[in-house]
Amino acid sequence: MANQIKLRNASGKYSIRAAGAVLGESNNVIELSEGDLTPVLYVPRADLAMAFFDKTDTSTHCPHKGDASYYTLEAKSGPIKDAAWSYETPNEDMTAIAGHLAFNTSKVTVEEV
């Protein structure tokens, strides 16, 4: 599967929103495509309001990307558990996504503006 993972710089500017708030905007989004799965957008932490994200105890492991840590979004309307994840120390071939967050798109909107 590792040879089926493709990373590319997504063109355009993206807005990240949840619970009525803009969490960030970025021109530096990375799109990760993995086989037939829906592509995932990774947004640099530097372009996000990280004060609204708290690391949770949730973690998962991907043999190709490494260990993912999850974050709860502290919204005005209440916490949104595991709204985002990050490969903080990804496997060697995936280092481009280090320092980025990806989002559960049923909880957070990431769209090109």
From TrEMBL:
It comes from the Bacteria. This is Uncharacterized conserved protein, DUF427 family. PANTHER family: BLR5716 PROTEIN (PTHR34310:SF9), DUF427 DOMAIN PROTEIN (AFU_ORTHOLOGUE AFUA_3G02220) (PTHR34310). Pfam families: NTP_transf_9. InterPro entries: DUF427, DUF427_sf. Residues 16-104 form the DUF427 domain.
